[in-house]
Design a protein that fits this description.
With 173 residues, the chain is an alpha/beta fold. The protein is built from 6 helices and 7 strands, in the order βαβββββαααβαα. A 5-stranded mixed β-sheet has the order 2-5-6-1-7.
């Protein structure tokens, strides 16, 4: 699914709040989703086995506990979506909900990656020289709108239920 003009567009997924993005998604708003265990295992495998776009040996922190995590920082892709390395951690450990637009897309593709887009990325973009999120916009664009919209909807639900007032951001300990 390489797009016209040789431009790759990836859809952002799973990027959490941090000091630069204080209004970003808080995973505490989507905890304990009632996953079917076999489906959850398929998504964990899918997320884990996707293409690593960039990986840096830095620490990140758990947005639930504040504990430092030594899983690296970076991004992965299936050729359609882009997500941080730690997304699978939250799915595996905390049963976070994933957006239906993502889960439906993956299921509709029978858990297959878009190899043409991945090949395009590997040929056109050097993941070691630049953070993929900030790569050349003439070749590669990240669409964050679906994730932002979904995050806002989840925040609004939490606000209406009173949950949002009880949740405070957790920073690295």
């Amino acid at each position: 699914m390489v797009l016209p003009k040789e431009k790759l567009i990836l859809i952002e997924l799973g990027f959490w709040y941090d000091k630069d993005q204080p209004l970003g998604m808080d995973p505490k708003l989507i905890l304990n989703y009632p996953w079917d265990n076999s489906l959850k295992k398929k998504f964990i495998q899918y997320l884990n086995e996707a293409e690593v776009l960039a990986e840096f040996m830095l620490y990140t922190w758990c947005r639930i506990t504040g504990a430092t995590m030594n899983i690296g920082i970076g991004e992965m892709t299936d050729g359609i979506y882009i997500w941080p390395l730690d997304l699978v951690y939250y799915l595996d450990r905390y049963n976070i909900e994933l957006p239906e637009y993502f889960t439906r897309s993956v299921i509709d593709r029978d858990f297959k990656y878009d190899e043409a887009n991945i090949k395009f990325f590997k040929e056109e973009i050097d993941p070691w020289s630049i953070d993929p999120i900030d790569a050349d916009p003439n070749k590669y664009i990240v669409n964050s709108e679906p994730w932002k919209k979904w995050s806002e909807e989840k925040r609004e639900i939490a606000k209406q239920s009173g949950l949002l007032q009880t949740i405070k951001p957790v920073w690295m300990k």
